[in-house]
Amino acid sequence: MDAQSLRSGAREVLAFSLAGRAGVTTSATVDPRDGTELNVARLDQALSPLGVRVGLDEQGQPIFSADEVAWPKIQDGLTVRGEGRRFAAGQHNKVRAEVEAGAVQPHAWKTLARDGAGLRQVLHAVTRALDRVKEAQREVSRALAEATAEMARAEDPAQAVFVDAFEDMAQAPDYSVYEQVAPALNGISRERVVALLSWSAGTAAGL
Question: Which residues of 136-174 are buried (b: 16+ CB within 10 A; e: fewer)?
């Protein structure tokens, strides 16, 4: 399901279920007249009880995510029933769920960095990776801020200490959200990469 399918066609009610959760069926209405963001929000509301979250990526395309622990059950047991427009009507049909390739792939950088053009590609990739890491850190910080506020309202000192400790851990470069990119990016600033790109472009022009 992509943004185009959410913006075109007729209104349709989608029903979702997950094997192992008998009797738990959720539904979402997809109506192109309401726009992509609202339709994505409806899908997120319907799928979150089943362990799937829905959001928009940088290109405005819907992206579906799940916890790694829950992924096998979701991959094997998530089903959907439509009204014959985007999905078949009648019985629930298994959703074809596949793991998306990692957005950051440091292992490929060494292969590219063999000449000037390849080096520039690597530098651009590093810049994008840094942006993604910073965005992930901002999202973690926002979530922790919300959790801290909830803890404060609950007035539970022990829980507040836990949140503070977790926030400190989240700021560390080896936090799990960075585990694949930290070895390649740790200590590299975005400004340094941009400077290298400018230098690389100038060198190429001189050649």
Answer: eeeebeeebeebbeebeeeeeeeeeeebeeebeebeeee
